[in-house]
Amino acid sequence: MSPLRMPGIPDAGEVERSWRAAADEVGGHYGLTPRQSIPYIRVATPGHQIVLQLLYTGSGYRTSVRAPFHDPGGVSLVITDESGLGAFFKKLGFTQDIEIGRTDFDDRFLVRGHPVAHVRRLLAPPVPDHIVAQPFIDLRITGALFGESYPRGISEVVIHRSRIVRPTAQLVGLVEVARALVTRLDPLGTVETTDLEELLTRLARPRGRVVDIWSGIVLWDGDPPRRDSVRRLGERGDVKAVPALIEALDDPDPALVVDAIRALDAIGDPAAVPALVRLLGRRRDHVEDEPLSDHAGRALRAFGEEALVDAVERALAGDRTGLLEAVGALREPAIEAFMQVLDSFDLDARVEAAVVLGELGARQALPLLRDKSWAMGLRTKLADASRAAIDAIEAQASLPRPASAAPPTPQSAQGATLPRPAQPRGSGTGATLPRPVDEPDARER
Questions:
Q1: CB under 8 Å to 353, separation ≥6 — which residues?
Q2: How far apart are the first and last CA of the chain?
Q3: Does the CA dihedral 196-197-199-203 come out positive or negative?
Q4: Is residue 266 in a domain?
Q5: Which residue has the higher pLDDT, 398 or 106?
Q6: Could you tell me where the DSSP H helices lie in 27-95?
Q7: Read out DSSP for 289-303?
Q8: Under 8 Å CB-to-CB from 96, ≥6 apart: which residues?
Q9: Cα angle value 292/367/372 (rounded, 5°)
């Protein structure tokens, strides 16, 4: 770990000791920010991360707490110390102030937000106790801060304290305020659950990350709780989860896809077979040193589709014996799998996939094959195989053939095999035909 660097702070050692003590008390992790090597405390729950950190702004340090959470309803809350114009406008009744019936809190703080009833529930004990214990506090629920980007439906609790907070009790209080608020704002994100509906809801939440633009600390990561939900759905073995798990097979997160494959394997519903067949072509993403296609292949073997898996593997190695028979009723998902192989890193497999698509008469693959058939005018194995596949598909479908067999250009690749539009009268080749005799003018009759 890098040494603590805090320019202009003579008691850096004392700060480190108090922050370490606070981390131990709240059950968090103490560390140094990767970019500035100054202290932070991270407290993790199943669906949230609360980060208390020091930020150096150029004019000095400030203590900040950030706690992103899932907020589809758009809750609003701002709490500030009454001072200056805020107190003046409050006395005149020109600004909203939500009171909670506690004198030491209501007299000191200006509270704004909506819905009002929900704000009062958020400020139930022990939140006011921790807020009152702070010499100064600015708390708000907000969206993405300047320069950052959040997934849709994600907001965060942000608390600011000017200067460095040293007392351990105050540091603990800041964390506990954030923890209580996110627990009330998003209870599903703070507890372990095995309930089917709750797991499906958590799986449907946003994916992605929120990273602090200044410190580089990961504040929120939507993928781990979604993966956990998939694993728990597999453990439940409820067929009601199958549609959501099938949808998860298309997720950009490869680790979540593998968890979904295993969950579907554990549930054993044959409805998952077509979606698993499509994954036989997803060879670029690797999990546990294996491509996703291998994980899908094992699940398909458990469903009794050994012949199909073996036939696909042989076809991509150049042996297409028995492929059509093995594909059978799963022709469409198999075609999608071979189309995905065209974008893999294995050139030989890409060439064989193009050949297979031609033999299967995969008309839906024509746009992709036309794209692969253009190699900047060069002859390559993939370009040649793609052109041959296009010819085979068009022959099977009895589509109009292009007038020239010359390799297509990028501009003509998409429409090279489509019928040419009729030429307007008086243009093109028709321009040399005899023109009709004009009717004599009435004045000449």
A1: 281, 316, 338, 339, 341, 342, 344
A2: 107
A3: positive
A4: yes
A5: 106
A6: 84-92
A7: TEEHHHHHHHHHHHT
A8: 112
A9: 70
How far is CA 103 from each of CA 94, 107, 140, 445, rounded to the nearest angstrom?
Answer: 21, 6, 21, 110
Residues 83 and 145 in one domain: yes
Please, which residues have CB within 8 angstroms of residue 438's CB and are 6 or more apart in sequence?
none
CA atoms of 28 and 42, how far apart (whole Å): 5
Contacts 24+ apart (CB under 8 A), 319-323: 320/355, 320/356, 320/359, 323/356, 323/359
Asked whether residue 344 carries a pLDDT value surpassing 60, the answer given is yes
Neighbours of 266 (CB within 10 A): 16
Tell me how far CA of residue 203 lies from CA of 116, 157, 265, 292, in angstroms. Answer: 30, 23, 18, 20
Residue 83 lies in a domain: yes
Question: Do 49 and 38 touch, CB atoms closer than 8 A?
Answer: no
Distance CA 185, CA 223 (A): 20
- Taking the CA atoms of 354, 358, 360 and 363 in sequence, report the sign of the dihedral they define: positive
Q: Does residue 173 share a domain with residue 36?
A: yes
Rounded distance between C-alpha atoms, residue 16 and residue 38, angstroms: 9
pLDDT at 254 over 50: yes
Question: Per the domain annotation, does 379 fall within a domain?
Answer: yes
Q: Which range of residues forms the domain containing residue 175? A: 12-194+213-218
Measured CA to CA, the distance from residue 1 to residue 6 in angstroms comes to 15
Among 31, 39, 30, which Cα is nearest to 12's?
Answer: 39
Q: How far apart are CA 165 and CA 235, in angstroms?
A: 45
pLDDT at residue 350 greater than cutoff 50: yes
How many other C-beta atoms can be found within 10 angstroms of the C-beta atom of residue 345?
9
DSSP state of 143: S
For the chain, give the percent of residues with pLDDT over 70.
82
Do residues 289 and 345 both lie within one domain? yes
Separation between Cα atoms, residue 426 and residue 423, nearest integer Å: 8
